[in-house]
Amino acid sequence: MVRTPAARTTVVERIDVDRPVFSVEFFPPKDEAGETQLWQAIRRLEPLDPAFVSVTYGAGGSSRDRTVRTTARIASDTTLVPMAHLTAVSHSRAELRHVIGSYAAAGIRNVLAVRGDPPGDPLGEWVAHPDGLTYADELVTMVRSLGDFCVGVAAFPYGHPRSTDPDEDLARLVAKIRKGADFAITQLFLEPEGFLRLRDRLDAAGCHVPLLPGIMPLTTVRTLHRGPELSGAPLPPDLVARLERHADDPAAFRAAGMDATTDLCEKLLAEGVRGLHFYTLNRSPATIELVGRLGLAAAR
Fold first, then answer.
1. Over 105-121, what HEC string results?
2. CB–CB of 7/82 below 8 Å?
3. Percent of the chain topping pLDDT 90
4. Which of 237, 239, 175 is nearest to 209 (CA)?
5. Which 3 state secondary structure label does DSSP give 21?
6. pTM, two decimal places
7. For residue 49, which of 70, 8, 80 has the smallest C-alpha distance?
8. DSSP 3-state assignment of 259?
9. Among candidate residues 116, 297, 275, 117, the one with its CA nearest the CA of residue 195
10. Active-site residue numbers?
11. Can you tell me whether residue 200 is helix, strand or coil?
12. How far apart are CA 144 and CA 160, in angstroms?
């Protein structure tokens, strides 16, 4: 049997296994030092066999070329299954088709199609390009039309930060799935209830694609506060009280934060969640530690 190159394997194939798995997210480096840090993280995580690795896409396409290069290098130089992000921000339809073609040419099979955040202010007003797309479901349709891609989309356990109607927010997610999305990854959250409610609501709507929780290891005071601010997830008061007593002791905060993150992951796994998506910030130690604690590394 001819072995399929990792780059051509789909995310759905990688997560459709009989054990819980994990995946990781990186962002394209801005300079040589960042490039070194990223590839150190990739090489340290590679032996743990994540189900896939994703590379983000800057607001307004500011990191477009770096995203293409980084994802293509992962596809060619590692054993990992890569997924490239794509946003509609500040792009015409022609530019989007060009980027999708670049991914296809690099042998990249998996794409996360998201509308994206406004440049400069992630919580600012979103304005479509005059010859661009307005909604992520349109981007899903475009990616689907241009190749044999496995397409993922974003989900929000507590609703999009700019949405005031939970039902409308769910309808947007359902629309993306019905336009052809194969799976969804959530923005980060700090307690399991919102994720589990969203999973149940999707199931009730007849959408049975995999829903992967996005997990941010709580290693600093900044990760505790900034992530929820951007994702729209609430800050659980008991968690804040548990961690902020260590605000002036970075080592103690990290230890308590990693315990809290482990607790969250264990609750999700106990509820039948089959994959955890870790936001790494291009560093490996916290993710490696969590994978070890949770027993998620693939058997060799």
1. HCCCCEEEEECCCCCCC
2. yes
3. 73
4. 175
5. strand
6. 0.92
7. 80
8. helix
9. 275
10. 25
11. helix
12. 24
